[in-house]
Amino acid sequence: MIALVTDRDVREGYSADASGLVLVPDAVARPGSADEVVDLLRHATGTRTAVTPAGGQTSTTAASIADTGIVLSTRRLDRVLDIDPAARTARVEAGVLIGDLQRQLAPHGLFFAPDPTSDQECTVGGAIACNASGPRTFRYGAARAHIRALTVALANGSVIDLRRPALEKNTVGYPPLQDLVDWFVGSEGTLGVILAAELALLPKPAVELGLAIPFGTESAALDFIVAARESAGVAPRCLEFLDGEAAAIARGDGGDGVWPEGVGAVVYVEEARDDEPPLEAWLELAQAHGADADRVNVFEGDGALAIARRLRHAVPARMHERATPFRAAGGRRISTDWAVPYRALRATIATVRERAAEADLLPPVIFGHAGNGHPHCNYIGRDAAEVRKIEGVVERTLRDVVAGGGTVAAEHGIGKIKSKWLPLQFSPIQQRLLRAAKRELDPLGLLAPGNIIAAG
Ligand SMILES: Cc1cc2nc3c(=O)[nH]c(=O)nc-3n(C[C@H](O)[C@H](O)[C@H](O)COP(=O)(O)OP(=O)(O)OC[C@H]3O[C@@H](n4cnc5c(N)ncnc54)[C@H](O)[C@@H]3O)c2cc1C
């Protein structure tokens, strides 16, 4: 049986993620093989000990931390097992970092489409367990669409191999049961430990173009995003929004000279094609919506696109840091993950701003995947009372979002922090089916307790 580490220092090393919460587990396990994971799960079942899987621990919802039982780190399961350029597939262990995988795929002219901006710190297993997405999900879809097969260890230690059926027609049984891969994508560690995955890969397009387009106001930027989405002249692969403060953070993080300055908002777009992308069409569309077309920054080639990506990633990273000094007083960053039908985004953001002002909160910094109607509103709560106040404001927004056909969580999952909001979206029948599935696969409730289904 693999050693369980109980040293305080080590346990504390696995007690924080990007949620701002700190939960110290009773022990940490760092298995280096599937057999060691299986042994650990058998031991946990025998001793009725909770096990919370953890990858890179970039979760924003406290899904990868626990104050009870064992945190099972997958970081030593870090082998790329096989790359098949002809079939455009890769088989990897769960603890491989997405950034490392992309570097190994690049010489083959291939890439893994899910691109959370945290890709240099997060694992393939964590991305699958959250059904993660990212800026380019606008074109390629979230992680679910790119998983062909999974190897999963269940709570009792049995290992199952799941492969998506190659069927083109199927009427056997209830549709959610026809492909069990889908049960584990987005299951947030609650149904099994993903050991390995077979990933579908895409060929790298010949030309990739990024544009950072400055606008005087955020409403002009948001109108432009709707227009770009509906235009026949351009075909974006990402449509990202940064409000004035988010744009300033990106610029201050090394974007001097390559990122617009002193703007109301920035829209970052990318288009990728095998022929020349329509730069003129983008500039005309931007100008028609009030953009300052003379100050558009153009990113072309892998190096330049990597810079743009780093600047965009700086926004959530710096917002997380801004909240750190308030932790001692119970403060933290509160990051929303709701999404609405994309045409409703401008009005929803206006309501968010009004509510924050009415409640006398620091203005939220808003950025993210606006092409999918999916921004992240980052609030800073300076103490525990302010965190509660912000959560009240967020809950009112979530009620509107769900009433308007949106979701309370589009890519970060529910974890522990947002499980209280699941009933806003799921009917009582859906909640009973969710609990029944959990009981069937994890009858003792040992896997990632508190994730998705609120504890107690
Ligand atoms: C700065 C920043 C930017 C981000 N940007 C994005 C973004 O653009 N798009 C996006 O979707 N997300 C984003 N995220 C959220 C997060 O990075 C992703 O959800 C990521 O995929 C989580 O991977 P991880 O390895 O860090 O998982 P962890 O945080 O370690 O775990 C996340 C969840 O997955 C479970 N889990 C981990 N490994 C396994 C496994 N092998 N088997 C079963 N369950 C497992 C854990 O129990 C937990 O429930 C961002 C986070 C940060 C901090």
Radius of gyration, CA atoms, in whole angstroms: 22 Å
| CATH homology superfamily of the largest domain | FAD-linked oxidases, C-terminal domain
Strand order, sheet with most strands: 14-11-13-12-16-17-15
Overall tally of structural domains: 3
User: What is the level 1 CATH name of the largest domain?
Assistant: Alpha Beta
CATH architecture of the largest domain: 3-Layer(aba) Sandwich
- What is the CATH third-level topology name of the largest domain? Vanillyl-alcohol Oxidase, Chain A, domain 3
DSSP strand tally: 17
The main β sheet shows up as: 7 strands, antiparallel
**What is the residue-mean pLDDT, rounded to a whole number?**
96
Q: Specify the number of helices.
A: 14
Measured as a percent range, the helix fraction is 25-40%
Quote the beta fraction.
15-25%
Unreliable runs: none
Structural class, please?
alpha+beta
Which ions and ligands are bound to the chains? flavin-adenine dinucleotide
Instruction: Give the termini distance in whole angstroms.
Output: 31 Å
How would you describe the shape? globular
Walk me through this protein's architecture:
With 456 residues, the chain is of the alpha+beta class. It folds into three domains: 68 residues, Uridine Diphospho-n-acetylenolpyruvylglucosamine Reductase, domain 2 (2-Layer Sandwich), CATH 3.30.43.10; 124 residues, Uridine Diphospho-n-acetylenolpyruvylglucosamine Reductase, domain 3; 206 residues, 3-Layer(aba) Sandwich (Vanillyl-alcohol Oxidase, Chain A, domain 3). Helices cover 33% and strands 20% of the residues. The protein is built from 14 helices and 17 strands. A hairpin with a 4-residue loop joins strand 4 and strand 5. Helix 8 crosses helix 10 and helix 11 packs antiparallel against helix 12. The longest helix is centred in the last third of the chain and has 22 residues. The protein is globular. The site of flavin-adenine dinucleotide has 38 residues, from strand 2, helix 4, strand 9 and helix 10.
